Amino acid sequence: MPYIVDGRRVIVVGTRQSALALTQTGQVIDQLKAICAENGLPYDFEIRKIVTKGDRILDVTLSKVGGKGLFVKEIEQALFDQEIDLAVHSMKDMPYELPEGLMNGAVPKRVDPRDCLISAGDLSLEQLPQGAKVGTSSLRRSSQLKNARPDLQIESIRGNIDSRIKKLETEGFDAIVLAAAGLHRMSWDGKISAYLAEQLCVPAVGQGALGIECREADAEVRELLALLNDPITALAVSAERSFLGALNGGCQIPIGAHATIVGEAEDGSALLELTGIVGSADGSVLLKETLQGNDPVALGLEAAALLKARGADRILAEVRG
Ligand SMILES: NCc1[nH]cc(CCC(=O)O)c1CC(=O)O
């Protein structure tokens, strides 16, 4: 039953309670309010905070805990229970397959997909001293950084982005690696020392994009979310996620993919270019493919098949243990 106050439906928005999650949820609500005003839609919005398993186990290595969607299970339950009507996720934390009855109702316009460095002394990757201690718990990042700079000493760093930035100082890191998108959403761009080019450090699938999950049966919310969807971002993310799905990956294994629209195909549809990587944790092996096509799902499958033919499955099996 929709929740009605003074004759208007109140759409309840679920979110994790990290500073980033709250900020991006607030930004999506602002966009939805603007869409409602423009289109004369009679909805109000309310935020409901939800604690997920991923939030409770930030002190252990997530890849060891395993399981995809550590940040979404409780949120999906709240959607099923009608405690919330939609949920804002970082696309890269969203599992490849959504449960029956739920759907991704919108992929808003993507912000900067790149990773970046925050370093002591504002140094770039090239400028970091020999053997510099770099904090990241992402195998995708460590694989690519070690590949570019085998001398770096990569160490695990956990926590939300605010606590990682504090640890840069308190735990003697020379630099940490974070997604530019999170910093951008928090208006912390000023802390960024250097951006890592997409080709040097291929981003996580969906990085910089959001996904808005809702119930398939909720026609009102679906119609509202359709107005927030950015078709170009959705196309690119769909190619990246197809690649991830074909490799059976989550965000805690060394897989990266980045798609952009590079032109028009012969039939007038958008021409996509996808770069996908699979690497070993130590960076000694880094397999990369870049290809173009106009069918996002086929493109992702094709890139995955090419990497599998070069041994990606074996690398992933080793990482998964
Ligand atoms: N895995 C954590 C996570 N999930 C989403 C973001 C922010 C970037 C984004 O929205 O893509 C981050 C932080 C980070 O990787 O630095």
List keywords for this structure.
321 residues, alpha/beta, D-Maltodextrin-Binding Protein, domain 2, Double Stranded RNA Binding Domain, 3 domains, six-stranded mixed sheet, five-stranded mixed sheet, 14 strands, 34% helix, binds the ligand NCc1[nH]cc(CCC(=O)O)c1CC(=O)O, Porphobilinogen deaminase, Porphobilinogen_deaminase_C, Porphobilin_deaminase_cofac_BS, porphyrin biosynthesis, HemC
Return Rg in Å.
Answer: 20 Å
SS-based class = alpha/beta
So what's the CATH class of the largest domain? Answer: Alpha Beta
State the low-pLDDT regions, or none. none
Most strands sheet: 6 strands, mixed
InterPro entries: HemC, Porphobilin_deaminase_cofac_BS, Porphobilin_deaminase_N, Porphobilinogen_deaminase_C, Porphobilinogen_deaminase_C_sf
Keywords: Porphyrin biosynthesis, Transferase
Cofactor: dipyrromethane
Protein name: Porphobilinogen deaminase
3D structure, described in words:
This protein has 321 residues and is α/β, with parallel strands linked by helices. The protein has 3 domains: 4-108 and 208-229, 3-Layer(aba) Sandwich (D-Maltodextrin-Binding Protein, domain 2); 115-196, Periplasmic binding protein-like II (D-Maltodextrin-Binding Protein, domain 2, 3-Layer(aba) Sandwich); 235-320, Double Stranded RNA Binding Domain, CATH 3.30.160. 34% of the residues lie in helices and 25% in strands. The chain is built from 11 helices and 14 strands. The strands form 3 sheets. Strands 1, 2, 3, 4, 5 and 11 form a 6-stranded mixed β-sheet that branches. A 5-stranded mixed β-sheet has the order 8-7-9-6-10, with helices on both faces. The chain is globular.
